[in-house]
Amino acid sequence: MEYKSLVGALLSGIAVFLVVGVAVTEFAGSWIEFSLFLGIPAGLAAGVFTTGAVYLGLADDAPAGRRRVAGAFAAFGVAFLVGLVALGWVVNVGVTTAIIVSIVVAVVVAAVAYLRGPTSNHGDGRNGAD
Question: Of the four, 66, 76, 93, 104, which is 20 to 30 A from 111 by CA?
């Protein structure tokens, strides 16, 4: 396991924590007074699960299909967080706009990462070409 895999797993977990936490908080807001107390644990659980799944999915001995999915989740996490920081703090657009645009861009990046992911069970990251 290399450093890049660990960073990708952590960033994907943080991204999923933020997305799920905000979604649950906003969804439950009309029924529950302190919906943040639901959003934080839900986001934390989803983020921890995603971090572990991506970390195990990027292992050298993982099947190619699992590495493709894990790589797509890692790419989503990186793209979402970079987009959110760039739009929210650097460009200074609204929070809702920054989140929506970051999610859309991250989904596109994740799809491209999945399509370009490994197609063989080589542990060295090659795409089936010897």
Answer: 93
